[in-house]
């Protein structure tokens, strides 16, 4: 014995219940009124009860018909939703992107919703890493990299300005009266940009200060968190910490900033070997922010 009635009979029942009319249900489903009547009768025989009371003016649901309609509508709605999602997923194009964790959290994620609003059928698969990507081995489409923007065989799109300056908690900032006071505090470094403190101190700081001493972290987001907790002073990339600066979690103790020019973040992709229009769309979108 079958456990479920046929789908066409359920759709006929739903349409007839919505319209209280055999004729209108037939118009909705683009079949004849006779076919609707036959399908409803077949469903009633399957269930062993009447779903409608027939009147000259149309159809009226019985008590069991009301109960069954509730379950049928919920089930068909879920079926339609699931079908749509599966078909949509099948049609979506996935762009595999590798990026730094701090850049992803502080810059990319807050903006990616705008991309999805315009291009809902393109999925950006974001994974974080600080190492250089081998596009021939890692199977990715694009990556966010920190550098001068000139990598052989790569097309690069500049993303942000890389303006750096020391940042710390408000508590430590109150204790700093001059740049020379930096020698009394722990400098917080990031492995992916180990020379930032040296570059800034070469421009503004004491010449006899060890610019490479202090605590080293795998990612900037860890160094910033340590700075927020007053564990030291980090070299901030101002475009990536706008939220923490606005909240007052981090502050600039000095009015000295250094623009590193071309040395900044880029979206990179191989110049050849890719034929993915959706990647072109993403590259144009992300580069429009700079």
Account of the protein in words:
- The protein is α/β, with parallel strands linked by helices.
- The protein has helices at residues 7-19, 22-29, 33-47, 63-91, 101-118, 135-138, 170-173, 196-204, 220-228, 242-247, 277-287; strands at residues 52-54, 59-61, 93-99, 122-128, 142-147, 154-158, 163-167, 187-190, 215-217, 233-237, 258-259, 264-270.
- The radius of gyration is 31 Å and the shape is elongated.
- A five-stranded mixed β-sheet has the order 4-3-5-12-6. Strands 9-8-10-7-11 form a five-stranded mixed β-sheet, sandwiched between helices. A two-stranded antiparallel ribbon has the order 1-2.
- The protein starts with 6 loop residues before the first helix and ends with a helix.
The CATH architecture classification of the largest domain is 3-Layer(aba) Sandwich
Characterize the biggest β-sheet: 5 strands, mixed
Distance between the termini: 65 Å
> Nearest-angstrom radius of gyration?
31 Å
- Which spans have pLDDT < 50 for at least 5 consecutive residues? none
How many DSSP-defined strands? Answer: 12
Q: Which CATH class of the largest domain?
A: Alpha Beta
User: Domains counted in the coordinates: how many?
Assistant: 3
Percent of residues in helices comes to: 40-55%
Which whole number gives the mean pLDDT?
Answer: 91
What are the main properties of this structure?
290 residues, alpha/beta, Arc Repressor Mutant, subunit A, D-Maltodextrin-Binding Protein, domain 2, 3 domains, 5-stranded mixed beta sheet, 11 helices, 12 strands, elongated, DNA-binding transcription factor activity, transcription, sequence-specific DNA binding
């Amino acid at each position: 014995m079958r456990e479920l009635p046929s789908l066409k009979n359920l759709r006929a029942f739903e349409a007839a219940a919505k319209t209280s009319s055999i004729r209108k249900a037939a118009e909705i489903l683009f079949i004849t009124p006779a076919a609707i009547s036959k399908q409803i009768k077949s469903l009633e025989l399957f269930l062993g009860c009447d779903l409608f009371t027939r009147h000259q003016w149309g159809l009226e649901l019985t008590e069991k018909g009301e109960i069954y309609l509730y379950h049928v509508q919920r089930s068909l709605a879920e079926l339609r939703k699931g079908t749509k999602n599966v078909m949509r997923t099948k049609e979506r194009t996935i762009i595999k992107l590798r990026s730094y964790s701090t850049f992803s959290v502080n810059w990319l994620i807050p903006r990616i919703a705008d991309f999805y609003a315009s291009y809902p059928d393109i999925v950006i698969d974001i994974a974080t890493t600080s190492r250089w990507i081998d596009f021939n081995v890692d199977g990715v489409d694009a990556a966010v990299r920190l550098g001068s923007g000139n990598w052989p065989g790569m097309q690069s799109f500049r993303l942000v300005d890389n303006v750096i300056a020391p940042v710390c908690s408000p508590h430590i900032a109150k204790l700093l009266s001059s740049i020379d006071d930096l020698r009394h505090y722990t400098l917080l470094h990031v492995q992916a940009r180990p020379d930032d403190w040296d570059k800034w101190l070469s421009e503004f700081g004491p010449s006899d200060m060890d610019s490479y001493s202090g605590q080293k972290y795998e990612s900037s987001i860890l160094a910033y968190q340590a700075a927020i907790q007053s564990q030291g002073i980090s070299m901030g990339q101002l475009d990536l910490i706008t939220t923490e600066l606005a909240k007052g979690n981090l502050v600039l103790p000095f009015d000295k900033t250094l623009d590193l020019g071309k040395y900044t973040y880029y979206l990179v992709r191989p110049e050849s070997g890719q034929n993915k229009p959706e990647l072109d769309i993403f590259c144009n979108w992300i580069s429009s922010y700079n």
